[in-house]
Amino acid sequence: MAITPEEVAETLSMVSQQNLDLRTITMGISLHACADESMERMCTKVYDRITTTAEHLVEVADDLQREYGIPIANKRVSVTPIAQIAAACPDQDLTPLARTLDRAAETLGIDFLGGFSALVQKGMGNADRRLIASIPEALATTERVCSSVNVASTRAGINMDAVLLMANTIVDAAAATTARDCCGAAKLVVFANMVEDSPFMAGAIHGSGEADAVINVGVSGPGVMAAALRQLPQDASLMDVAEKIKETAFKITRAGELMSRQASARLGVEKGIVDLSLAPTPAAGDSVAEILEIIGVGRTGGPGTTCALALLNDAVKKGGVMASSSVGGLSGAFIPVSEDAGMIRATEEGALTLEKLEAMTSVCSVGLDMIAVPGDTTPETIAGLIADEMAIGVINTKTTAVRVIPAIGHEVGDTLVFGGLLGTAPVMPISRYAGTVLAHRGGRFPAPLNSLKN
Length: 454
Fold this sequence. Notes:
This protein is of the alpha/beta class. It has helices spanning 5-18, 39-53, 57-68, 82-86, 95-108, 126-140, 160-175, 222-230, 238-267, 288-295, 305-321, 341-348, 354-360, 379-396, 438-441, and strands at residues 22-29, 72-79, 112-119, 145-153, 157-159, 188-192, 213-219, 270-275, 368-374, 400-407, 415-419, 423-426, 444-445. Helix 3 (57-68) packs across helix 9 (238-267), helix 8 (222-230) runs antiparallel to helix 9 and helix 9 (238-267) packs across helix 11.
């Protein structure tokens, strides 16, 4: 479907009046050819592969911004899960690879690089264990590298040994960066049903089924959506609300489709997906929580919040899917606490609790995202939090995730300040009744009956 001049003009209006931007342009790069038994040689190959393939990414993104007038907030790279190529070498410490990724990101001038990752939903190989053991130091000694581990899937169930291991790793990552408000844990996410083409951090990887290099684009536009919904009268039915969301999501996604096509052609790499997620930022007027309150919830977290979020998420998908030849990634609405000014306000007022957030994750795009908990929270409690979220994803055949930050040295009511896109995280209370038995049982939560699709 051709992009019309009228669509371009309407998009420019959304940019100038409603804070529309393209949240990210992410180049996925395969590193399979970089595997080597020598860590030094492998690091050299990885650096050369990334910096050569994405050499013009920032330049092209800047050109597109100038030509079309649509801001591109972030330029990013995702790579093959590093545990997959690290299997070729015997080194126990894989932090040299993380530092290589960080050096490549700095050379390119990009914001984040994702892929210091492992997929262990059914079992852990030697390279997976080495990578996970390296995560705390890797995130403490890099600036732009993000890490993710998939511990569950509907087809495999939940690897409970990996759940406990990741709970301890999260605590260690926070402890290794206490001088920077535990930001190491803010760049680490634990997944169920991880997708292989997401452009969003911290969970972006370049999956095994992808081309050697591909452009994935993430659109956003909470401000545009909020402005559109404010046009409706207070007595508009939820059917009218859903239709307005669909209509607006279509327009936002068309902007992403345009930029995706252009970036792919200019960079000479395959066009991937458009992720049509509503991704908030700490900036005023760029909040998913604000949209929920415009729909009619008194304060995000109050009764009706899950219903409003479900409506929003479903309508965004319905509208956006018709606007692109290839919708993928996570696609829907994100609810990261620290990255959404409305979520932060609702948390500070006591309207939004961890338990309510968990209920909301059953209908949103990701899960418990960017949540700070007291620094003395036990690994068993964090493991229980992860296990609960993984169960939601596995049983409901959806992607769910946990990005939780143990606020070492902080208590409920304190605030962690990460700055930039990661925002500000109020420390939230968490139940102390996890116990110690479940997390240490180990083994595997069996795949549910609905995994048998053949």
